[in-house]
Amino acid sequence: MRCMRDARESMFIREDSSQGRLFSGTPVTVHVILERTVWHKIDRWILPVITIFYLLSFLDRVNIGNARLYGLQKDLNISNKEYTIALTLTYVAYVSSELPSNLVLKRIGPSILLPTIMVLWGVVATLQGVVTNYQGLLACRFFIGFLEGGVPGIVLYLSLFYPRQKLQTRIAMFFSAASLSGAFSGILAFGIRDLDGKRGHSSAAWIFLIEGAITVACGLAAFFILPRSPTSARFLTEQEKKYVAERLREDRVMSKDPGVDAFSWSEVGGAFTSVQVILVGVIYFWNGVALYGLAYFTPSIVQSLGYTSAAAQLMTVPPFAVSALVTVAAALISDFYKCRGAVIIGGAVICVAGFGLFLGSTDHHIQYGSLFLSIPGTYLIQPALAAWNANNSAPYIRRATTMALGFMMTNSGGILATWLFGVLSPAPRYVKATQTLLIFSVLMGLFTALNIWYLSRQNKTKAIARGSTDSSADAEKMGDRSPWFVYSM
């Protein structure tokens, strides 16, 4: 019932309704038509590009797992430990560039920055197909990570186009691309197997050459499609631009005072000292371990169940395909009821069931079936976390920092995941890795419940504070710490 009640509440408590105040003198029916059509327009132009962007970023980061099944380590004469170091370097570089890229996104312009980094990492990803030694692989993995550190800016970019109550479903659309990348990578790798030896390149090399070239082409196309902001979108009429801008100001995504959204080190620091950001950050880390552990090692896990390399590539497709559907469905529920925390707890419970089945059974069919729980459970949590962070941080610079911190924690979890599977927990059972992920899943549920409790207490305290003041004039300057800012739970 609390979810349904919260679904009817605004992110900010307002002194009066602004629905009838948009474009004074304009008939209410025009507002209804605009509300019905404008978001669909943005969806058609923005979401496909962003989804492809995220799909390819994830694909170029984790397709090394598919290449491994086709003899990458043998081609480069590297050990399991050296392979793990290469994966780790990717995330060290990724984490180091996430916060700076988020902070400069608005200044440079997302329509320039995002396509640029896409083209550059696509070039580096392609070059992985021609490296002949371990040092070359390390260099490529470092620059892929460093350039892809700007990828989390996608969430910040989307938050500039949509009101908060519409955000998670859109985030889930491109987060589902992470699941689809697992399915797409398996299908593509299966098809590439016959290219072994063509033009002097192995199957492992062709994975990088083909998928990297696709990224470069899509990055070049994105320059001509992505708008800098809603007010500069060519596909919107002037009336639609004004409507979107007013709706975003109403929802405090855009500030009425431009100075509020200006860069400030104090707002950067404010993200580091927010309790809800810290709690969600810890959950991000635990989920990141599972997310990247499954992304990188599902092909190896499936192969350890007795499938050949080619068959293992195909058998990874169904769990990731199911995950994409579940991620979007969970986001629709979360957006409708505004229950970010409840969705995360639900995902954690599904993860517990999946990892528990894999750990408790020796039957290969049951172990494979457990992936239909653990993969969707893990992947549906990410968009809920991203929306939770975006919903509960303001103004812009604090929100940008908060979202970067969340992804930094996720990718820090990726560092642990690269060592957890294979090195610290050998195939085929991956016992220690599975035990660790099971414990992390339980902790995710508990810490989510703790954050819900904390946010509920803060909202009650703010309600009392609102009773002692007659104005919300300083709400924008105070950001999410204003009594008039109601946290999403």
Automatic annotation (TrEMBL):
List locations, semicolon-separated. Answer: Membrane
Q: How does it sit in the membrane?
A: Multi-pass membrane protein
| Record keywords, A-Z | Membrane, Transmembrane, Transmembrane helix, Transport
What domain of life? Answer: Eukaryota
**Is the Plastid keyword given for this protein?**
no
Name the PANTHER family for this protein.
PERMEASE-RELATED (PTHR43791), TRANSPORTER, PUTATIVE (AFU_ORTHOLOGUE AFUA_6G00710)-RELATED (PTHR43791:SF85)
Every Major facilitator superfamily (MFS) profile domain range: 46-460
| TM regions (residue ranges) | 45-64, 84-105, 112-130, 136-159, 171-192, 204-226, 277-298, 310-334, 341-360, 366-388, 400-424, 436-456
Record-level GO cellular component terms: membrane
Q: What is its main location?
A: membrane
GO MF term set:
transmembrane transporter activity
What is the name of this protein? Answer: Major facilitator superfamily domain-containing protein
